[in-house]
Design goal:
The structure is a single chain. This protein is of the alpha+beta class. The chain has one domain. Helix content is 14%, strand content 23%. A three-stranded antiparallel beta sheet has the order 2-1-3, with helices on one face.
Length: 70
């Protein structure tokens, strides 16, 4: 059963609209990117969480399920 990609915010089941690429420099190599998906509502809070820790690298629109891998 394939599910549509959903927002990564806790308890949110909204469709993914954004990809937030991040990495933790203490444990990831500089080129490694992890991905959180976000709906429009949670994009600012998820982005702020990552940015406050200096983990956020890039925010781009989510286009397809193939974009969700990582």
């Amino acid at each position: 059963m394939d599910l549509a990609p959903q927002c990564s915010a806790k308890g949110c089941r909204a469709a993914a609209v954004w990809r937030l690429h991040w990495n933790n420099p203490k444990i990831h190599t500089p080129d490694r990117r992890k991905t959180w998906l976000a709906c429009d509502q949670h994009r600012p809070t998820l982005g702020s969480f990552l940015d406050a820790r200096r983990f956020l690298r890039e925010v781009v629109p989510f286009a397809s399920p193939d974009d969700a891998t990582n």
